[in-house]
Amino acid sequence: MRTIRPIGPIRPPEWLMQGAAEVGEVSLALVRSGVWRSAGPAQLVRIERALRTWGQSMAALGVIAAIRWPDRAAVISGDSQLTYAELDRRCERIAAGMHAQYDIVAGSKVAVLCRNHIGFLEATLAASRIGADVLFVNTEFAAPQLEAVLERHRPDLLVHDEEFTPPAGVTAILSTSGGSGVATLDELADSRAVGAAAPSTAGHITILTSGTTGAPKAAPRVPTAVGLAGLTASALSRFGVRSGEPVIIGPPLFHGLGLLTSMLALFLGAPLVLRPKFDAATLLADVEKTRAGAVVAVPVMLRRLLELGPTAIAEYDLRSLRAVISGASQLGVPLAERFIERFGPVLCDAYGSSEVGIATIANSADLLDAPGTVGRPCLGSSIRILDEQDQVVPTGTTGRIFAGGGLVFGGYSDGSSKTVVDGRMSTGDLGHLDSAGRLFVDGREDDMIVSGGENVYPVEVEGCLAAHPAVAEAVVAGVPDDDFGQRLVAYVVLREPATEDELIAHVKANLARYKTPRQIVILDEFPRNATGKVLRSKLSPP
Questions:
Q1: Residue 158 CB neighbours (<10 A)
Q2: Contact, 161 vs 174, CB < 8 A?
């Protein structure tokens, strides 16, 4: 006769209860979002087993979502759609196929070279189930860059879209059916191979930094449950997203912003709406069709949405939209104000990097009350502004930004790291805090321009130019000058005609004389990387 033991009170996992001051806000946000609703005793037993098996890995997120919401849509990619149960079954079979056919085991390295579609998630979650390390490869790499990255990291297996040609000697499979005789994820999902044993530790996730100031570096991490819980609670309370509401991911999933928000969606049981390439009108159509509650985008995507014009925007039913989450590059005050005016108070800004994850979040109220802010720290994170002697500077004083929390990485794959002080890592940015604890980014440490003995932060001048009604976007850089050491050159993209003299006069009227560019270069568009960041190295005065 079986003994039935009573189940005690249902409570969050112990890792979520760390930090008593934050427990109330975390718990309230999770309850309000619907994440903790309708989890019965049988589900809780299976969830506990999944956590024991896969720990704090992406695999655990996928498995638990399938336990909680098996019949709910997990991924909507164009006309294709999978439920959480279907996604979990396919990932289980793909993981078994990777192990049986390619000898992928815990500690192996699987590279993923895919655009935003179901195959990206399947490859990532399947490799994570085995305990393999996953390397995300930038889909914008030219052939020599791709070859160099794969030579440096030497993956045991590459999963790629058919449009990309892997270098010779790399073991590869296709993310979708290609009909070229090469194995595909679909074939692995249909196999009946025997899976690998459950991993003893979670594999690393490696993101390549953007490389806007040099060659990209690999930033490996194992996302901690504490860090993800803090980000989740902050996102729920400040973004207003809800469990089960579709989330449209615009930035590439191989980038930190796209990856973290996709993990957040898995945790929430929120269907991921993906497209291989961004198109502004298609995104609005997807919001209407899926009744999406959130959109994740980079600032250049927000500009493209505004460029559709009020008449075109009004054609779409966007009433379901709770949040438009911007990140990956500077939002800028004029763009934020224009977007909120057109779409309503749904805009949020997330500040962070590949190395520190998402450190702060600003909602629309922050963006309107304190123009230029990137918000307050996420739960479980902290911000310090330090001087050159690593001392905290007074409120309102510019210094080096240091961030700490559960999403900070442990160092680059080459053994180097960023500066760490008292457990907080340098973001590489300069900034200040206001009296309300809101963070403002004043520029990059390596972007500061010294002209005639005066320190100039490009962000301030860029913001001034962007405030001119004719300017869509501005970038300011320093170039060598025999008299002043450096002189300021501004590069602008216009939304309506304006002359160089008009723009220079605008800066003179609003900023100190030494902050006025000596030259303004008008461009049709800026060179950008895959995440929308301007490639300053490709800008040069005529």
A1: 23
A2: yes
